[in-house]
Each structure stands twice: as structure tokens, then as C-alpha cells.
Amino acid sequence: MTIDATELRRRTAELLAAHPPLETDRLDFLKARFDAGLAWIHYPEGLGGLGGPRALQAVVDAELAAAGAPDNDPRRIGIGLGMAAPTILKYGTEEQKQQFLRPLWVGEEVWCQLFSEPGAGSDLAALGTRAVREDGGPSRSSEAESGGGWIVNGQKVWTSSAHLARWAILIARTDPDAPKHAGVTYFVCDMTDPGVDVRPLRQITGEAEFNEVFLTDVRIPDAHRLGEVGDGWRVAQTTLMNERVSIGGMRIPREGGMIGPISQTWRERPELRTHDLHQRLLKLWVEAEVARLSGERLRQQLVAGQPGHEGSGMKLSFARLNQEISGLEVELRGEEGLLYDDWTMRRPELVDFTGRDAGYRYLRSKGNSIEGGTSEVLLNIVAERVLGLPAEPRTDKDVAWKDLAR
Fold first, then answer.
1. Is-catalytic flag, 63?
2. How far apart are CA 330 and CA 343, in angstroms?
3. For labelling alongside 33, which of 151, 158, 250, 325 has CA 20 to 30 A away?
4. Do residues 127 and 140 make contact, with C-beta atoms less than 8 angstroms apart?
5. Contact call for residues 264 and 254 (beta carbons, < 8 A)
6. Helix 310-333 crosses helix 275-301 at what angle (to 10 degrees)?
7. pLDDT tens digits, residue range 197-253?
8. What DSSP state is assigned to residue 395?
9. Residue 193, SS3?
10. What is the rounded distance in angstroms from the CA atom of residue 292 to the CA atom of residue 310?
């Protein structure tokens, strides 16, 4: 059957008739929506979708919103939706897709990302967390056979939602004799394992939105490996590209994001205005609108397949604008901008870039150029993979990881 807007409206009406939102438990409604293929319609049938055009998802969302149906709280489960799910869909086995995607989408299970390490942030491929065959067998793709399990030891850092997560996407080194990009394997890690120790990292804002995670003899069954042994770097690229799109290409309305609060202050507080501040605000307002429209175009490109490296450019723009706008807001408010409402150490469930007061926005935006790929690394990606400029010399490209200076 052809999946078009008319067919989607018919299926949505059937869902609403069988499960009236005001009379149905929220989680039950979301499960029914997933089973009806109306969760993410571009996913295959049986996995929350109908194999239809991604662009038509807006038709379903609009019909359900008009009926007062609950959503799946996408901000709370953003890592699962934006990073884990696309990777599982592309590289997971059928069993993995059936196990993970439904509870991920309905929000029963929160996900986190165990990628960055204290010595492997910007140079993620230098990661040192080790995964060793439980039976001492081979850890190379040409020799390894499925079955058994892996023992993982190491430390990860800058991990959002680790204190809430049921599952994590994890990359670990399985072959130290291979060059750093070649000896990595991708796993799904159970965050409830007794060997997983999650510790809060207090940030400049006072909150502990991030965590460091220590992995001590954590056993991961081979059935929770995504992709081939030693092919984890290629698998991780799908995750990273989707991450940058989810951060830099978020759908926001006009004057959404950082530009909203400062625009409101400008309109409501004429006594704060100066000609210089006016000119600077106008410039940033236009840049924010250009970035918003560019994000819309990027999302339209996703209809044709997986995101490309353009997401890196959007994430770069997101970080720069947030920092410049929040700095101008503090300046606009004068002495008020130097105040800070609360330094209490909290472990929030949601990441809110624009929440609280001007001081919070100013401090929180400093992390935007680090998280999801540092701006310096993303500039290299845009230069080399989007613009086609010559790559930087990489003398360690063919050197075994174990021989690298650390």
C-alpha cells in the first residue's frame, strides 16, 4: 500500500478511535502508536514505522497534537532517539532491533553515550577502554566468532543522563595491535551492571548534568555487539553524525533558542537599549534566523537517507551563536546580568540550554563548543569532508595503538 498523507491520516484516526488519548494510559497509548507504525514512519514495518517518506511524519504529529495525544518526551530520551536508534537500525541484528527500539521510543528506557574519555575527547579514536574476550579468544574480526561475551574495563567522561540510563552505546578497544581507528568495537552496555559506577561531574553552572563512568569487569554478551569486531569506528560515525544533527539541527520556532529571551528583554526593557547594542542584536537575530532555516533544510535532506557531514557545520553555528547571544544578553542587562540565581548541585533529568536566568544561559553555553564534538574538530571535518580541502598530516594513522605516545 502506498503511504501518503491521506493514508497516514486514516491510520492516525484509527489509532485515536481505538485508544482515545484522554481515556488511555500515556505509556499504553505510546506503545499502541509504535505498534501502528506511527512512531517514526520512515522506519520499517514492525519497528515503529511503515517504510514511508520521512517528510510525512509531520502529518502524523499534527493530527495527534490536535487530538491532545501525549508525546514521548523527546528531550528526556534525546540520546536514544537521535543517536542510539539510527545506529541500531543500520547495524543491529533483527533481534537487537526488536529488543531495543520499542522501549527506547516509548521512553521506558533512557540511553546514554559512553564514547569520550579523559585522554580521548577531541581525538576519540585514541580511546583506551578495553574489551577483552571473556574466554581469552581472538579479538579481531577475521578470527572472531559470535557467541560468548566481553569483559570491559575503563573510564568514560562527559556522559549525559548516565545517572538515569538503562542502556548505553559504548565503543571500546578490542585490538591494541591495530591502528587506533581499526581496533575499536561498538557495544550496547547495560548500565545496571554492578561493574558500572556513575559519578556526577559538577559543572560551571553548579549542576551535575554530566557524569564520569567507571567500568570495572563489566560483562557484555556478544549478542550486544553492534557491527563487526574491529569495525566500531565506522559504526560510531553513524552515531556521531546523527548526534551533531540532533544538537545543531533541532527544530525550533522563530525566536526560539537563545535569541528568544534576549529579544523579549529588548522589547520589555527600553531603558536598557543603546544604539550599539541594537546593531549587535540585529546582526545576531539575522544569524539565528539563518541558522534556523538552514536546520530546516538539513532536516529535509535527511528524507533522502542518513545525515551527512553538514550536521557538523550546523553544530558549529549552534555553539558560536549561543555563546555570542548569551554574552550580549549579560551585557544588555548590566549589573543584573552578573547575578546568578542558584548554585545548588542538582542532577537534572533534562538538558536545558536556555533555561533559568541570563547568568545560567551564559555559563551553560560555554559547554556547547565542547559537547558533541569540539568546534576545533568540527572545523576540520567541514574543511576536509564538506569543502574538500587537503587533510591535515596524520603521522599516527598507521601506527598500532599500543605504540602511540600517551
1. no
2. 18
3. 250
4. no
5. no
6. 160
7. 999 999 999 999 899 999 999 999 999 999 999 999 999 998 988 776 666 556 678
8. T
9. coil
10. 14
